[in-house]
Amino acid sequence: MTGTLGIVAGGGPLPARLAAAARASGRPVFVLGLEGHADTATIAGYPHALHRIGAAGQILGALRQAGVDELVLIGTVRRPSLLTLMPDAEGAKILARIGRAAFAGDDGLLAAVIRVFEEEGFRVRGAQEVMTGLAAPEGVLGRHAPDAAAEADIVRGATVARILGAADVGQAVVVQQGIVLGVEAVEGTDALLARCASLRREGPAGVLVKRAKPGQEARADLPTIGVRTVEGAAAAGLAGIAIEAGMTLMPEREATIAAADAAGLFLVARRFD
Amino acid sequence: MTGTLGIVAGGGPLPARLAAAARASGRPVFVLGLEGHADTATIAGYPHALHRIGAAGQILGALRQAGVDELVLIGTVRRPSLLTLMPDAEGAKILARIGRAAFAGDDGLLAAVIRVFEEEGFRVRGAQEVMTGLAAPEGVLGRHAPDAAAEADIVRGATVARILGAADVGQAVVVQQGIVLGVEAVEGTDALLARCASLRREGPAGVLVKRAKPGQEARADLPTIGVRTVEGAAAAGLAGIAIEAGMTLMPEREATIAAADAAGLFLVARRFD
Prior knowledge:
Two copies of one chain form a homodimer.
Chain A: E1 4-9, H1 14-24, E2 29-34, H2 40-43, E3 48-51, H3 56-65, E4 68-74, H4 82-85, H5 89-98, H6 105-119, E5 123-125, H7 127-130, E6 139-140, H8 148-166, E7 172-176, E8 179-183, H9 189-196, E9 207-210, H10 227-235, E10 240-244, H11 253-263, E11 266-270
Parallel strand pairs in A: 1-2, 1-4, 2-3, 4-5, 9-10, 10-11
Antiparallel strand pairs in A: 6-11, 7-8, 7-9
Helix pairs in contact in A: 9-10, 10-11
């Protein structure tokens, strides 16, 4: 637990935030930024290297050279097409090991990537395991609570999100008055919320429901919300946001709750069926 | 079969097209336009009346007075919220008869509306039953056929669309290289295609798959495609469109096929599992 923490970094502020938390706790970190995904500005303050996703040989070599034993995969990654992957020699071997899982949707691919890292001798951990307080705790997180209409929409949204997750489509759904206004696929939650602003109808406001996929690998690709999610939900005229307790990352927890309180939105974390 | 055909008209060109086809076949028609939905310009050339969805008493009265025996429900209807429905006395009674189905998603609501019309003495028919050639026949409909990559995406899209339909979410899905780029909810297929233009990735182009919901009521709300769908698919960089044979309406069949041919898109109608 006290060796160098490796952070394989996709996009967004989360990798640097994790690096800061690890460093603050006295643990050495090494950030392996994924080229074209990682925010080079925010990881520049930490020991780091930048490699293409396909350059598996260089990635593994850099992690080993940095003395990494535990690894976290964190940040957004737009899944590369096989044509743009351009694997190096090691990457080609790994692709062969992954085999069909590389084509079997995000879940299968991530599970396979984690397995490869572990076979290569790294212990892969969830970001929420190495950063206390990162995962959302259960309960009403702000000042506002869902009313009966919102509770019904949460139930409907959680059901649809489970089905979507099982089909490896996405993690977020917007429901108003029992009607699914929008469903997230690769466009992301912000884009989903943006279009729902013009799809809502009169009457009781809708809800955003975000949950992990059934059988979700808890060490990668957990749903994440932040201040921007709250702002998008408010702009879409929603009543609030329901997330999955323990399986949703809230890297800006205080600011996110404060934003929900200020916007009059509820923010609730549930254990979904 | 020779009495007056009643057309309960939502939005779009389909109601007027159906009216024209019925008149051309020598059958008298009466168009009951739904206020705020029906295109009043295109139905003006036919005997018609215009009523709010909630005004069930007036709707039933107008249909009876016009001597309607067979009814078709056709055209797009944005589901009203209960607050904007403002039922008249008859409408309130019907709402009570429909009961929970009114809140149970589009499928339940439509089935209940059809049941009410039938209980009131009308025979409700599918548009494709009264207008020959309206439903898409099985097979490759244009000059282009899907390749192996597209076939794999069609299979994935048909599976996801079945799941979405079963959850009463939507009828259309865009898939590229096995990845679900976008899923239709209430925004409609045109909006789905518009956003997929910026979500596609390099390599083999994706497909639009549109299918009826499992157990779909064939007398209402069948998926529909037209020239605009082909234009949207072409603008989104897709390789083609797969629809459900017999259960998808193609009101502009020749023009739609011609547009697909001209754009280099395949257009195929399948019997999905």
